[in-house]
């Protein structure tokens, strides 16, 4: 089951500046063999369900190992069986509508 | 790793009435050995990470098996290492603050 | 436009314990003339769009006034024109499906 | 109060293909004088709270006017008082951490 997932990890108890923790997650997602696409309010990942959700778990594990006491994460994720669609396809579909 | 998770599954391509699909997910979460707590905009589940996230995967699988062509899901989830906290503890903490 | 909204406010830079800030939001939502329904991962509010979203804005304002330097909030919200539906109706619909 | 907001609008009751509705929202956000940044699972908008949240309301209004009977939207939004930060600043902070 292919999944497109938007991940937003918010570490608590480490002050207001959280970019180094987000960078830590980006590295871990790559270490899981996935290609994160960073945007201003999260990161898009896509692939097989177990691999993608496994990467999300690893993000929580490595941040806790790095001393983050609490993490609050928001995820949006989509699956479909009617056709195969990538994250890039989704953006392209909207852009084509805008050009039409 | 204990996780408290808020699950909101939105099936697409099946019309505006989605309560029967939410009910299907409630049953599947119970079949996974977890106790869902339904509220007006989602369901709270808690337990070991793999069991809880496994139940989320099962929800997608059973809805697709039931003919739902596309699913868009929103998840909020939290883990912490400073202390053990249940979903009921979280509500109680806020209620105690309100009474204080 | 009637809206059902799930609000999850996460204050950053104030440590790991955030229940007093959630309680502060509950009070502010009531002060706005709305009835919040607290659950383990957020609060449900419903009513006219401007009133409900106005309450969300007030939550951010009062937390910043109370010294919270940064807030990350997740919202789910729904509107529909096919029929009037309350937050209680949504839960009841799923429960009826479960009983059927 | 400056806000950075991630908007994900999901129209229900209009089938599985929703890109034209997302494109409609992009146009409406621009018509509100804001610059949407589309990504694979939403759109980032930033600016003054009332203007940004006003654009979100307009998205719901125009989709309902276009015949969408039900909309389920997920929003992530952040405000901070410790310093001014744009959406581009957020991405840059993480990229700098990754290069370090």
Shape of chain A: globular
Count all strands of chain A and give the number.
Answer: 4
Please tell me the overall pLDDT of chain A.
97
Largest sheet of chain A: 4 strands, antiparallel
Amount of beta strand of chain A: 25-35%
Proportion in helices of chain A: 40-55%
Rg measurement of chain A, Å = 15 Å
Question: What order do the SSEs of chain A take from the amino end to the carboxyl end, as H and E?
Answer: EHEEHEH
Individual helix count of chain A: 3
Give the N-terminus to C-terminus distance of chain A in angstroms. 32 Å
Provide the low-confidence segments of chain A as ranges: none
What oligomeric state is this?
A: homotetramer
Main interface: chain pair and counts: A-D, 35 and 35 residues
- The SS-based structural class of chain A is alpha+beta
Strand order of the largest sheet of chain A: 2-3-1-4
In short:
4 copies of one chain form a homotetramer. Chain A has 100 residues and is of the alpha+beta class.
What does this structure look like?
4 copies of one chain form a homotetramer. Chain A is 43% helix and 32% strand. With 100 residues, chain A is α+β, with helices and mostly antiparallel strands. Chain A has a 4-stranded antiparallel beta sheet. In chain A, a hairpin with a 2-residue loop joins strand 2 and strand 3. The N and C termini of chain A lie far apart (32 Å). The model of chain A has no long low-confidence stretch (mean pLDDT 97). Chains in contact: A-B, A-C, A-D, B-C, B-D, C-D. Chain A binds chain D through residues 4-6, 8, 16-17, 19-20, 22-23, 26-27, 37-42, 44, 46, 74, 76, 78, 80, 82, 87-88, 90-91, 93-98, and chain D through 4-6, 8, 16-17, 19-20, 22-23, 26-27, 37-42, 44, 46, 74, 76, 78, 80, 82, 87-88, 90-91, 93-98.
């Amino acid at each position: 089951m292919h999944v497109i997932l938007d991940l937003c990890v918010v570490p608590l108890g480490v002050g207001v500046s959280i970019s180094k923790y987000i960078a830590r997650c980006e590295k871990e997602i790559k270490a899981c063999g996935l290609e994160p696409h960073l945007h201003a309010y999260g990161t898009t990942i896509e692939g097989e369900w177990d691999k993608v959700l496994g990467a999300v778990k690893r993000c929580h594990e490595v941040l806790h190992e790095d001393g983050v006491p609490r993490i609050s994460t928001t995820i949006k994720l989509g699956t479909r069986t009617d056709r195969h669609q990538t994250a890039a396809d989704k953006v392209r579909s909207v852009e084509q509508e805008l050009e039409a």
